[in-house]
Write a structure and sequence with these properties.
mainly alpha; about 60% helix; about 0% strand
Length: about 100
């Protein structure tokens, strides 16, 4: 008997939660539009990018050097039909190009 009361009470809470969510967001729409965003011209963006100094160039090179010890393991995993997943901030292009040119050449 006690279980049924608890189940009914839980269903009531969840039902009320979803009803409140539905009623609270009903009719609310954003007034922001994509066309209202000021887009920077491409040439201006390129000029601004050219003025930026690379901040972590030494750190990136050191990190790529530290990964070189894993190249043989990566090549083995590829030969065994496994994939490699590279994740984290920044581009992995330089790392992968170095791996391909040294370990898979």
């Amino acid at each position: 008997m006690e279980n049924n009361e608890e189940d009914d009470e839980e269903m009531g809470f969840s039902r009320n939660y979803f009803l409140a969510k539905e009623l609270g967001s009903y009719g609310k729409k954003s007034t922001h539009k994509l066309c209202d965003i000021g887009v920077v011209p491409e040439e201006e963006l390129r000029q601004a990018m050219a003025k930026l100094e690379p901040k972590h160039e030494k750190d990136v090179k050191a990190l790529i050097e530290s990964y070189k010890s894993s190249y043989t393991e990566w090549a083995f995993e590829l030969r065994c039909n496994f994939g490699l997943l590279m994740y984290g901030f920044g581009s992995k292009k330089a790392l992968l190009e170095d791996f391909v040119s040294t370990a898979l050449a």
